[in-house]
Write a structure and sequence with these properties.
Order of helices and strands: HHHHH
Shape: globular
Largest sheet: none
Radius of gyration: 15 Å
Number of helices: 5
Strand content: under 5%
Distance between the termini: 41 Å
Structural class: mainly alpha
């Protein structure tokens, strides 16, 4: 059995797990989930580069924690959009 530290694994498995989660499938159509996947693959690397290079953080935060926070905020926005639009099921982006 091989053990890996989470920081050595990277952020991509975390995003993959989020995209396959039931919470996301409750608020988005499957075709929209693939668009979110493309969006995250495009956006996360420059965000992490900017945060680690140009931002001063009073506490050290690793990339996995930053990506986890991003995914939680995204989920909050998506669930809130579902409440505002009055739909109880899936909606598109």
């Amino acid at each position: 059995m091989v053990f890996l530290e989470p920081k050595n694994l990277g952020w991509k498995p975390l995003v993959t797990m989020y995209l396959k989660s039931e919470r996301l499938s409750r608020v988005l159509h499957p075709e929209c989930i693939s668009l979110v996947d493309l969006w995250l693959e495009w956006l996360i690397p420059p965000l992490l580069f900017f945060l680690t290079r140009d931002c001063v953080m009073p506490v050290v935060i690793d990339e996995l924690q930053l990506v986890t926070s991003l995914l939680r905020i995204l989920q909050c926005f998506l669930e809130d959009q579902g409440k505002v639009s009055g739909s109880s099921g899936n909606f598109g982006l």
